[in-house]
Specification:
19 strands, single chain, alpha/beta, about 375 residues, five-stranded parallel sheet, Rossmann fold
Length: about 375
């Protein structure tokens, strides 16, 4: 499209969310992003729009509206029934060039990680991958930094501009995309000041899901963009979808998570066994810090933290976990945090609702026994 130029920033408006669905069912990350997108749109004073691709998926629009979307751009075609990079990229790029959103976010799923960078390249804009926090409003962003970073308060208060091509640039309307860097040892905030849309993929489970509102669901509008898509646009064909299952731990959906860290090092096998028993008694699952995963004590899908999974259980047990900022970022919003560590100065105690300073190999058996007695008395 000749009129499209990613550097004409003033022409771009509204926040878009790519609404990933599989088999006619919205992915949980999509609703999280719609909830987060509502916040960003409110900060900018614009509309929140969902971009929904598929075949016979109009019935999903109401659910998206109920979580905050003002409008859904619905692209319905038999060629979009099953995800292919070629088809989805072409349709998304055509829609963005037509309507010009200033922000577009994708879930950092297998599909999102494949799709977003290809779209960004064709749209001549930047992409920040695997984000864990998004902000536009500067006061809100500064509050986030004060709670989650080690920057001095006076330095945070002085933020507001960035050097772009040697000149000061006001970042008050830029999307501030925060993500782990250098293997999770640092957090970096990225902006895209010269191009639009500002694009990001967001890690599943890090954004809070807003409550469903029936009035908003009824009020959502649906528009069908006039996109062009034919067989000749597809370089690949999906002949068959074969679903295979393997047992994975569901950390993000668990009500109770029992995580272990470097503190089980003196007897790893026993430490994991205690964590598994405690989790079993409470109907929970076992997680681990990065140290536990890097040491090979638990599989990678058990990792909790900035470079692992973000969890919000009703009860979170941190056993032998010191509480590095990367780990705390992945579990600090849990309803109740119970920490066991023999180091009384461990940072984990700063956010724990209940802290026990002691040897986890002595404390955890007592906890297990106590919970069992409690259950038997009911």
């Amino acid at each position: 499209m000749e009129s499209y130029n990613s550097t004409n920033i003033s022409e771009f408006k509204n926040v878009w969310v790519f609404c990933e669905q599989r088999g006619g069912k919205l992915m949980p990350t999509t609703l999280e992003l719609i909830s987060e997108g509502r916040k960003l749109a409110d900060e900018l004073g614009v509309d929140l729009c969902g971009l929904l691709l598929g075949k016979d998926v109009e019935g999903l629009c109401k659910e998206l509206g109920g979580h905050g979307a003002n409008k859904i751009y619905l692209c319905d075609s038999p060629l979009l029934e099953t995800y292919t990079t070629d088809a989805y990229t072409k349709v998304i790029v055509d829609c963005v060039e037509e309507y010009k959103p200033e922000i577009m976010v994708f879930g950092a799923s297998n599909i999102g990680r494949d799709l977003a960078p290809r779209c960004a390249a064709r749209l001549h804009t930047g992409l920040c991958a695997d984000c864990t926090h998004l902000d536009v409003d500067m006061p809100i962003y500064k509050d986030f930094l004060k709670e989650s970073s080690t920057l001095a308060p006076e330095k945070i208060d002085g933020l507001g501009t960035a050097l772009v091509l040697g000149e000061k640039h006001d970042v008050s309307r830029d999307l501030k995309m925060t993500r782990p860097a250098f293997g999770g040892h640092l957090m970096a905030t990225i902006i895209c000041p010269r191009f639009r849309p500002a694009m990001a993929t967001v890690r599943p489970g890090v954004m809070k899901l807003s409550a469903y509102d029936e009035a908003k669901a009824v009020a959502v509008s649906v528009e069908r963009p006039a996109f062009a898509l034919s067989d000749s646009d597809l370089k690949t064909r999906v002949r068959e979808v074969v679903k295979a299952t393997r047992e994975l731990v569901d950390l993000t959906g668990a009500d109770v998570v029992v995580s272990v860290g470097r503190g089980i090092g003196k007897d790893v096998e026993k430490g994991i066994a205690l964590a598994e028993e405690l989790a079993s008694v409470l109907g929970g699952v076992v997680g681990g810090s990065r140290a536990a995963i890097d040491s090979g004590w638990l599989p990678a899908d058990h990792q909790v933290g900035q470079t692992g999974k973000t969890v919000h259980p009703k009860m979170y047990f941190a056993l032998g976990i010191s509480g590095a900022i990367q780990h705390k970022a992945g579990m600090q919003d849990s309803e109740n945090i119970i920490a066991v560590n023999k180091n009384s100065a461990a940072p984990i105690f700063e956010i724990a609702d209940y802290g026990i300073c002691g040897d986890l190999f002595k404390v955890v058996p007592l906890l297990i026994e106590s919970f069992k007695e409690e259950q038997q008395s009911k």
